[in-house]
Amino acid sequence: MNGPAQTENHLTRNQSLVLDALSKSGGPLSAYSILDQLRDHGFRAPLQVYRALDKLLEFGMVHRLESLNAFVACRHPSCDDHETIAFTICDRCGQVAEISDDTVAARLQSLATDAGFALKSSTVELRGTCRKCQPSSCKMVQ
Amino acid sequence: MNGPAQTENHLTRNQSLVLDALSKSGGPLSAYSILDQLRDHGFRAPLQVYRALDKLLEFGMVHRLESLNAFVACRHPSCDDHETIAFTICDRCGQVAEISDDTVAARLQSLATDAGFALKSSTVELRGTCRKCQPSSCKMVQ
DNA sequence: TTGCACATGTTATACCATTACACAATGACA
DNA sequence: TGTCATTGTGTAATGGTATAACATGTGCAA
Ligand SMILES: [Zn+2]
Ligand SMILES: [Zn+2]
Ligand SMILES: [Zn+2]
Ligand SMILES: [Zn+2]
Questions:
Q1: Nearest CA-CA partner of B107 in A111, A43, A137
Q2: Most CB atoms closer than 10 Å: which of A30, A104, B39, B102?
Q3: CB contact, 8 Å: A7 with chain B?
Q4: Interface residue B93 vs chain A (CB under 8 A)
Q5: pLDDT tens digits, residue range B119-130?
Q6: Which of residues 31 to 50 on B have a Cβ less than 7 angstroms from any strand D atom?
C-alpha cells in the first residue's frame, strides 16, 4: 500500500488555514494576500501558500481566476461536477460568482472535438459589472 | 480637433516590431520573450513591449492569453468581430487556435444577463491536446 | 530499523507587469 | 513661426506573481 494519500476529508493544518482565509474573505485573494493574512499563524514564505493552494485546487475546493491571478473558495452548491464552470467578475467591486451551465459545457466540448482537440479543462471568465454595481439609470426596479 | 488618434492603419515602429515578432513566432510569446527577440532592434525595457502590446490589443491585432500570461497575433479570418473568442491551447506543443462561435457567445451573454451581470468581455481558454499531439491509440483514422 | 511517501520550512531566484519621470515627435492653431 | 497639447518613446526603479533547490520532519509499512 502506498502512503496515506491525502483526500479532501482531511486537510493539513496549512491547507485548512488557507481555505479558511479564502472562505472568510468572501472574495478572490492573491496568494500573497493570503500569505500576509497568515503570518500570525506562522506562515513565512509564498511556497507555503502555493503548496496548500495546489492541493485545494486538486480537491476542487478552490478555484483559480486566471484573469486576476487570484483564488476563490468554491461556493458552488454541489461541489461534485466542476468540469466546466464560468465565473463572473465585477470590475467595480471585485465580486465573483460561479455559474455552471451544461449548455456552454456541451458546446465547448463539441467545438473542441470538431477541431480534433482533446479537451481537458476550460477557463471561462466573464468581466463586467454585477447587479449591485450597475449605473442603474432606472431606480424603479431595485 | 484632437491629436492624431492612432489607428491600426499606421503602426509605429515599436508596434510593428512587436507584431512581427508575434506573427513570425506562430505561437504565444511572453512579453519578456518578445523583449529578448527585439534587443537587436534597440529594445531595452519591458515597457517598450507592454506599450506596443497595449495598442495592438486595442486594435484587435493581438490577443492576450490569461492562462499563459502570453500574447498571440490574431489569425482570425475576419478580424472584425472579436466580441467572444475561445482559444484552444495545447499543453504539449503550445499551439494556440482561435475559435469564434455564436452559440457560446449568445449563451454566455444570456447567462450573464440572467444573473443581472452587465457583460463587457469574456475570456474562454480551453486546455488539452491538439490533434497532432494526441496519443492516438488508433492510427486508422488520420 | 530501514525505507518510503508526503508535508513542511527556508532561501534564493525567475518571471510578469507597472509607476514615475524625462524627453522627442507630431500636428493643431493663433 | 512659435506655442501648445497629444502621443509616442527611453530609462530606471519598483511591485507583484510563481517556482527551483535543498533541508527537515513525520507517519506508516516492509
Ligand atoms: Zn466551485
Ligand atoms: Zn460589483
Ligand atoms: Zn483574433
Ligand atoms: Zn499539440
A1: A111
A2: A104
A3: no
A4: no
A5: 999 999 999 999
A6: 42-48
What does the pLDDT look like over A92-111, one tens digit per residue?
A: 999 999 998 999 999 999 99
- Please tell me the CATH code under which domain A13-130 is placed: 1.10.10.10
Identify the three-state secondary structure at position B113: helix
Domain ranges of chain A: 13-130
DSSP notation for B52-91: HHHHHHHHTSEEEETTTTEEEE---SS-S--SS-EEEEET
Contacts of A99 in chain B (CB under 8 A): 111, 115
pLDDT tens across B7-51, in order?
666 899 999 999 999 999 999 999 999 999 999 999 999 999 999
The helix (H) or strand (E) run that includes residue B92 is: none
Amino acid type, B7: T
Lowest mean pLDDT across A125-134, B39-48, B79-88: B79-88
Cβ within 8 Å of A, B 43-82: 66-67
CA dihedral A111, A117, A118, A121 (to 10 degrees): -60
